[in-house]
Amino acid sequence: MDRGRGSKRTKANPAAGDRITDLPLELRARIVSFLHYRQIVQLSALSRPWRHIHHHTPVVKIYLGPGLLDEEDSILAVRVALARRAQDASASKVDTLKVAYFAHDLRMRRHADRIIALADAREIHIQSPYPGHEVRNAWTVYLPPAARRLEVAAIDHVGPAIAGPGAALLRKLSLDKLVLREWPHLPSLRSLDLESVTVETLFAPGQWCPLLEELDLFCCKIEQARVDICLLHLRFLEMDSLDVSPQGQHDGPPFGLVTVDAPELEEFDMIFKPGSTRDFKSFTLRAPKLRLLCWYNQFAERVHIDVGKPGSVKAGHIEFMSVYFRKMEYYREQMMRMLQGLLPNVPPESIADTVRPYVTLEECPDSDDDDDTVEEKLTCNLSALMSRDI
After folding, report:
1. What are the Cα distances from residue 11, in Å, to 1, 6, 8, 325?
2. What is the chain's percent helix, strand, coil content, to nearest 5?
3. β-bridge pairing 214-218 and 198-199
4. What is the pLDDT of residue 160?
5. How confident is the model at residue 390 (pLDDT cuts 50, 70, 90)?
6. Which PANTHER family match (predicted)?
7. Positive or negative, the Cα torsion across 350, 354, 359, 361?
8. Which of 181, 157, 142 is nearest to 105 (CA)?
């Protein structure tokens, strides 16, 4: 056997381990930001060039799991490190803080509150893991002065109250998988993103975030009969799979009375997800500056659309598929009512003839049906229709 073959292996170069150390401080700090902050603090003991690396990471990630809390010294060491960073005039500001903890645990919450205050980050992500049962205890997130963006994901938790000096300056709020019983007052909020959120209180965002410019509702449940989106500065609105019905009333006729009154609205997307949402009782839209309208399958028994002068909307489409519970004749009737609102100068009796070149009816297979049922899809190309300056 040729034992010399092993000598051909590449030997480790002692200098190779210093390649990262030789990088600029800012780049090293970005690289180690992928680690949890406790690990980054430990890196500071490597050598002199790494001594204050934890004072410069743009992202700070901290998980307050039961295992870490059992080691009280470890979490206190993290807090001390953040405190020293806050006092170091040469340190970099924390851009993003990602902290995970069980919000129903008072001990964890106290640690988290102190960490949030010490980090004073511009963007804060809070995750509360599912504890295995519903949590209906009230809790509060105290925002530091630098906070401008907040994301909270808390499965089966009541949404937190938002307080602290950063609450009045918050610009973007994202809430995921929680229950809202009351709205926080956020006078500077510009963007709101709700995903898989159950809203038990009245849905009237204009009362608590009057400067809102973007609103995104995805797979949300509004347990009220009425939705009032009356916002003077709203420019972008998406309503994807929005279920509107009073609590406990899931059967019978449609309940939702939806009103959108937004004089600055430019883009509006409406998407209906079968099986998880319901038809609307009525839908009213007043948006004189609307430019883009995309509407998929959401049925409303009554529809009123006011977009000001004819031809205001320049792009988009309206689409209905008969697979979504109703016969195509109902969807066609709703489409004509919507087009009447988009073309107010065209007499109602002439709408069908006017838009006929831009409306298509085609057969399409139902991918969810095992018997290859063929359904119909009705589409109006608003981009082509409005380009004709009707």
Report:
1. 22, 11, 9, 69
2. 25, 30, 40
3. unpaired
4. 95
5. low
6. OS06G0556300 PROTEIN, OS11G0201299 PROTEIN
7. positive
8. 157
| Distance from C-alpha of 227 to C-alpha of 257, rounded to nearest angstrom | 6
Largest CA distance in the chain: 96
Report the length, in residues, of the chain.
390
Closest-CA residue to 182 (of 164, 167, 166, 160)? 160
Confidence of residue 12 (pLDDT cuts 50, 70, 90): very low
Neighbours of 24 (CB within 10 A): 8
d(CA 170, CA 167): 5
User: Residue 376's beta-bridge partner residues?
Assistant: 363
**Sequence-ordered alpha helix ranges (H) in the chain:** 25-32, 37-43, 66-70, 72-87, 106-119, 328-342, 351-355, 382-387
Using a cut of 0.85, tell me whether the model's pTM lies above it.
yes
Phi, psi dihedral angles at 39 (to 5 degrees): -70, -35
**3-class DSSP state of 112:** helix
Distance CA 79, CA 50 (A): 19
Q: Mean per-residue pLDDT for 152-166?
A: 94
Output the six-digit token pair for 365: 């297979």
- Do 241 and 218 meet the contact criterion of CB atoms below 8 Å apart? yes
